[in-house]
């Protein structure tokens, strides 16, 4: 008997999603974000890079502003208006104190109760595909930065910059994890999730020769259907949930 996924907690109002690249959230969680913003919850996005190394046929200098625009349009499609970029170099993001500091600063600034990130494990679900260094570095730094954000003696200069400790993060939710524990019924957010992923049209057209809308719908419907097998038959978005407070 496959272990069933629990319902994601709902006792929160503000979320901050921190990922490595444009499209990370759209492949992993935008249907859930759409459902949450429908309920009046707030969600902000922070991206470590512009994803400028992600399109083989377009050089980084041209790709960076293009992917930024597509990400902002993509976020707007699911009700997210706050989108920030840190500008780390795509493909070579390094886990370390500086990355933790930047993430801790963002958490203190946005004061979320839920922090969302993408798979930090070595492999993707199924265990046959190796995860990328950027995803691993960013995801692990996010998990550590949640604790850093609440400790006034770590990065004390942030207090001097007007960012006092924030201990209000209650949950960290990891999308795309090979070890999901919870899920969100995302049926109501599917159409907006398709539109959101489709906003990354330039990137998608470099990935596949399929019709972009067909590609987006097939991917999202397939991933949500896989979740349904462990979520009472309800298509959804799965997360590995860590309780922090």
Oligomer: single chain
* CATH architecture descriptor: 3-Layer(aba) Sandwich
The CATH C-level class name: Alpha Beta
Mean pLDDT: 95
The separation of the N and C termini measures: 31 Å
Structural class: alpha/beta
Low-confidence residue ranges = none
Looking at CATH, which topology would you report?
A: Rossmann fold
Helix content: 40-55%
DSSP strand count: 8
Largest sheet: 8 strands, mixed
- Number of helices, counting only DSSP H or I runs of 4 residues or more: 9
Number of domains: 1
Provide the CATH superfamily. LmbE-like
Write down the secondary-structure element order: EEHHEHEHEHHEEHHHE
Overall geometric form:
globular
Radius of gyration equals: 17 Å
Q: In what order do the strands lie side by side in the largest sheet?
A: 1-7-8-6-5-2-3-4
Q: Report the β-strand fraction as a percent range.
A: 15-25%
GO molecular function, one term: hydrolase activity, acting on carbon-nitrogen (but not peptide) bonds, in linear amides
Keywords: Zinc
Protein name: PIG-L family deacetylase
Pfam families: PIG-L
């Amino acid at each position: 008997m496959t272990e069933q996924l629990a319902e994601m907690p709902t006792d929160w109002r503000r979320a901050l999603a921190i990922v490595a690249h444009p499209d990370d959230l759209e492949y992993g969680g935008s249907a859930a974000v759409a459902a949450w913003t429908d309920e009046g919850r707030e969600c902000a996005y922070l991206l470590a890079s512009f994803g400028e190394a992600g399109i083989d046929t377009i050089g980084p200098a041209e790709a960076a502003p293009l992917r930024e625009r597509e990400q902002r349009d993509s976020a707007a499609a699911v009700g997210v208006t706050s989108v920030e970029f840190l500008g780390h170099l795509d493909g070579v993001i390094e886990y370390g104190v500086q990355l933790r500091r930047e993430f801790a600063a963002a958490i203190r600034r946005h004061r979320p109760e839920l922090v969302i990130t993408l798979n930090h494990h070595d492999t993707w679900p199924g265990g046959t595909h190796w995860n990328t260094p950027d995803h691993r570095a960013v995801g692990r730094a996010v998990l550590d930065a949640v604790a850093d954000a609440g400790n006034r003696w770590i990065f004390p200069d942030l207090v001097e910059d007007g960012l006092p400790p924030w201990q209000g993060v209650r949950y960290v939710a990891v999308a795309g994890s090979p070890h999901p524990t919870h899920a969100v019924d995302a049926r109501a957010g599917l159409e907006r999730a398709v539109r959101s992923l489709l906003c990354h049209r330039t990137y998608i057209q470099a990935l596949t020769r399929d019709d972009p809308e067909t590609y987006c719908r097939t991917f999202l419907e397939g991933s949500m259907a896989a979740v349904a097998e462990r979520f009472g038959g309800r298509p959804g978005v799965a997360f590995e949930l860590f309780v922090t407070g």
